[in-house]
Amino acid sequence: MIEKLGSQIRNYFSTVPYIIGYVGRVFVSAVFFFVREKAARKILIMQLLFTYIEALKLVIIVSIALGSAIYIAGYSFLLSIGQAPLIYKLLVIIICQELGPILIAFIVTARSATAIATELAGMVVSHQIESYVATGVDPIGHLVTPRFIGVTLSVFFLNIYFSLCGLIGPAIVSQIIHPASAAGYFDGVFACVTPTILVVSAIKSLLFGMIISIIATYYGFNVERASTEVPVAGIQAVGKSFFGIIIVEVAVVALQVML
């Protein structure tokens, strides 16, 4: 048992240099993507279409529902203890800073990480990647970078949509439950939106998008020759992405508290 555990640890750390090199290649390729990889722009557009555009409807519905539920339940509780004005700050922090980025990351992971990993794994198994290399096409620049940029931008902009709908939706829904001044609601909400909340939300969404895309593409390429490895790559991509998202969330919150 001890020897097996030691072997697993050695195998894990032996892949660390490769992972670091892979991440570095992706970032360098992303910097020069729009200059060098003109042929891959179509892949970027398709990735934005799938990850961003097609997820908008789901994100809008979820954000309005959750924002309204938080506002209605929170307002009733805070009103009972005489702290009703705090509902605006609570809503902004939960929707914009905490719930929005991580929920969007989970949605994108469930929708796109599996698709990216299985697609790339299928290309490896069917020897399409070897064909790219044989013809002088860099698989990182042509296949990975547009997905990296597309997923990262999608998470960022979906987070913006989630925050806007999650803050605006309760103003409409609450009129049915307990009618109040819409102007008073928006004054209270936007007074609580601070630059710190916006910056933290943006940083989280960008980091989550990078993590999802890098992990999904890495496990997509990390298969051998068996077709049975293709679904395994998708499962690993989703599981590792969830783990990475949670780790980054905890790290950002801890750093925020220390600062």
Question: Can you give me a brief rundown of this structure?
Answer:
With 259 residues, the chain is an all-alpha fold. The chain is built from 11 helices and no strands.
Number of strands: 0
Rg result = 22 Å
Helical element count?
11
Task: Name the quaternary structure.
Answer: single chain
Helical fraction equals over 70%
Average pLDDT across residues?
Answer: 85
Give the biggest beta sheet: none
Shape: elongated
Task: Give helix and strand order, one letter per element, not per position.
Answer: HHHHHHHHHHH
Which blocks of ≥5 consecutive residues have pLDDT under 50?
2-6
User: Which structural class should the secondary elements be placed in?
Assistant: mainly alpha
Distance between the termini: 43 Å
Fraction of residues in β-strands: under 5%
Q: Which tags fit this structure?
A:
259 residues, mainly alpha, 11 helices, 0% strand
